[in-house]
Amino acid sequence: MSAPDLPPAVDLQALLSASEITPVLDQLDAELVGLAPVKRRLREIAAYLLVTKARQQLGLEASAPSLHMCFTGNPGTGKTTVALRMASILHRLGYVRKGHLVSVTRDDLVGQYIGHTAPKTREVLKRAMGGVLFIDEAYYLYRPENERDYGQESIEILLQVMENQRDDLVVILAGYKNRMDTFFQSNPGMSSRIAHHIDFPDYGEDELLAIAQQMLVQMHYHVDAEGERALRDYIARRIQQPHFANARSMRNALDRVRLRQANRLFSQAQGSGSALTAEALSQISAADIRASRVFGVNTASLPDAPYP
């Protein structure tokens, strides 16, 4: 009596190797400081998609999974970077044809007069097809206080495409969590199409310091121990002030620090006439950092503007 045929099987490890998604996930770990919950969730989604691909090969999945997502969090927390990596993962796993990312806001989708919104939205969708459409501050698409607003028309077109062409386009909505929650409450059709919600936490002081140091290395600058203490003091003060945008604010701050360093070096060179070494051109001093107005300034008297 012959043994019964064994069910077909899929080598998941071989499937993982063939997809080449591990380097993308490793790159994300390397380029983004912190965000442990986000990275963990991304790996969970990647594992789910890989297993779904294996199930499809064995005829266990009848349809492609819903992949539309929502990224919530404050500015500068890495949402766009993660969206780029997600587009690459989806492409490598075969869920989108091209793997490119098209990043837009309301202004790219909504027109200012009758008959303008539909062609604008469809043109964006055409560019994004085969990849990922990233809509930042997506809640601005819906403005119920203005009955003549054309955002609802764009939402309706998006809903139709997200449902009917979900095998060729992934939409990622992004914005502040409380505003996105309100947006979904007002647009249940959109909420029902979002399969994955990922919240991006703010960075802590140690993480912001690591981000700043990473940025300085990329720019070929460095700080000594005194400069690092000044940078840590700056971060502790800056996060308490208005318009703080996490990594984005750190980049802006370092741009201002580099300007102050350049001005210091120029003044010194004018006075001495001596040549500058590579070390001098690369060194950010504590004084360059502490010259920011976040130190020793009554912030209550300052206008609502970003702090350098």
Structural write-up:
The protein has 308 residues and is of the alpha/beta class. The protein is built from 14 helices and seven strands. Strands 2-3-4-1-5 form a five-stranded parallel beta sheet, sandwiched between helices. The protein has a two-stranded parallel ribbon with strand order 6-7. Helix 10 crosses helix 11 and helix 10 packs across helix 12. The C terminus is likely disordered.
Instruction: Please count the beta strands (DSSP E, at least 2 residues each).
Output: 7
Mean pLDDT: 90
Largest sheet properties: 5 strands, parallel
> What Rg do the Cα atoms give?
24 Å
What is the CA–CA distance across the termini? 82 Å
Query: In DSSP terms, counting alpha (H) and pi (I) runs of 4 or more, how many helices?
Result: 14
Beta-sheet strand percentage? 5-15%
- Strands across the major sheet, in which order? 2-3-4-1-5
Which ranges are low-confidence, i.e. pLDDT below 50, for 5 or more consecutive residues?
A: 297-307
- Order of SSEs: HHHEHEHHEHEHHEHEHHHEH
Helix content: 40-55%
Q: Which structural category fits the helices and strands?
A: alpha/beta
Shape: globular
